[in-house]
Write a structure and sequence with these properties.
By secondary structure, the protein is mostly helical. It is 75% helix and 0% strand. The chain has one domain.
Length: 111
């Protein structure tokens, strides 16, 4: 593992995934009747409930995500948050791929 990937894993990318998994497990244990979609929606809404105004494009993306429920898994929610907060998207190529690999590794390790 190169040093850049290690920093990503221990830093923001890994932190986002670990936080989502921690919240997911907590909500699942507290509310076993909720399905995964409902839990992921609660995590998303809670994270951005007190959102201060973001630049126009990011704010529109955030609200479009909330309306369309494009986060159907811990992986997709993690990548959406990485896109919103770190401005890493599919078009960023290798950086996006590295983030995706870290998300996969953390999910496999923690779930």
């Amino acid at each position: 593992m190169n040093i850049f990937k290690w920093f990503q894993k221990k830093g923001s990318v890994g932190s986002i995934v670990r936080t989502i998994i921690k919240q997911y497990k907590l909500l699942k244990n507290q509310n076993s009747e909720l399905d995964d979609d409902e839990i992921l929606e609660m995590i998303f809404e809670n994270r951005y409930r007190t959102m201060k105004a973001k630049p126009g494009e990011k704010k529109r993306y955030l609200f479009a995500m909330a309306d369309s429920n494009t986060y159907k898994s811990i992986k997709s929610l993690s990548m959406a948050i990485i896109n919103i907060e770190m401005d890493v998207s599919y078009s960023d190529g290798k950086v996006y791929e590295n983030c995706l690999n870290i998300v996969d590794e953390e999910i496999e390790r923690l779930l």
